[in-house]
């Protein structure tokens, strides 16, 4: 049986959704830059701080609480990623984790090796690898996406992979255009030559079911603040790699994974929030554990597909608004859209929408290569409008109506 979906009830779980701007209810369409947080996550984080929590390794209750919180967060994320808890690593954010892992992997590279990146990626899955390659004297190959469709053909990546390739870094979903990438096809080709595959799933996190086993990636990283949690990064790494690679760490730190990758003291209140965020998502479906996550993303996906289709229908009649990327909701995109408005700079569009209580982003949103390939980087980038599971059809209508009047 398919779970029912009551967006009004869902919205009551999010205190921030009651905010107003200039007397208007706020429509948070800025989810691609960070989603809002349900009360259960806030409560979990607050309760941790109120109860008192100590560092790991102490022979007393508050330290034991820290161990429990960490273990619960690892178990929650193992259900979210479909991996074992021992393959889950926590860090400050996706960018910090990627810099750390890129340096560790780069130690294994030799002269003559190559790596493959894409120009569809957020800069956090480009520059860390580009810098590591430069430090190691390794050649970088960059696969291009189709600027007309916004799609990254797996063949464009695969044709750059050969026996010299040591790593392929790719996104699961573009944070700029909403494009979904066929990671499995790319991973299959990479593994045929012994290359590692590192996946940025930050933007996919709130929208699509993540299954590292099905993707067959070696590493995957996301950020909880993009899926209704706190500002914490979460890395999946295959056990063999986490064990075999040398971590940059201080000498007293654990020598075994996953803890050897977790530099410094973790934010235990944030880890409590991570577990609560996964629990919240699971509550939207039926069942517990991984089954509940799968069920939840089924209903989330159908709601977001409906919102995205409504937005695209509304845009179709707006001749002064240009959409970048696919004009259709399909399995190849999520409900994140990049647009421009004739005669109005992107930052001005965002400002005027904000005055109407409609929150969106403008600029390059760290997807600098995307904007460069689209020819808009030097002109201030684009406007990004994103819908997630707590957005409503009324909010779709509001932003379309504002765009229809050219924001006047």
Provide a quick synopsis of the model.
The protein has 408 residues and is α/β, with parallel strands linked by helices. It has helices at 7-11, 39-51, 61-81, 94-106, 127-136, 154-158, 183-192, 212-215, 239-244, 268-283, 289-315, 346-355, 368-374, 393-404; strands at residues 20-21, 24-25, 27-28, 88-91, 114-118, 139-143, 165-171, 196-200, 219-223, 233-237, 321-324, 336-341, 358-359, 361-363, 382-386.
Description:
The mean pLDDT is 97. The longest helix has 27 residues, at 289-315. The chain has 14 helices and 15 strands. The protein folds into two domains: 7-36 and 301-404, Aspartate Aminotransferase, domain 1, CATH 3.90.1150.10; 43-282, Aspartate Aminotransferase, domain 2 (3-Layer(aba) Sandwich), CATH 3.40.640. The protein has a seven-stranded mixed β-sheet, sandwiched between helices. Strands 11-12-15-14 form a four-stranded antiparallel β-sheet, covered by helices on one side. A two-stranded antiparallel ribbon has the order 1-2. With 408 residues, the chain is an alpha/beta fold. Helix 3 (61-81) packs across helix 10 (268-283), helix 4 runs parallel beside helix 5 (127-136) and helix 10 crosses helix 11 (289-315).
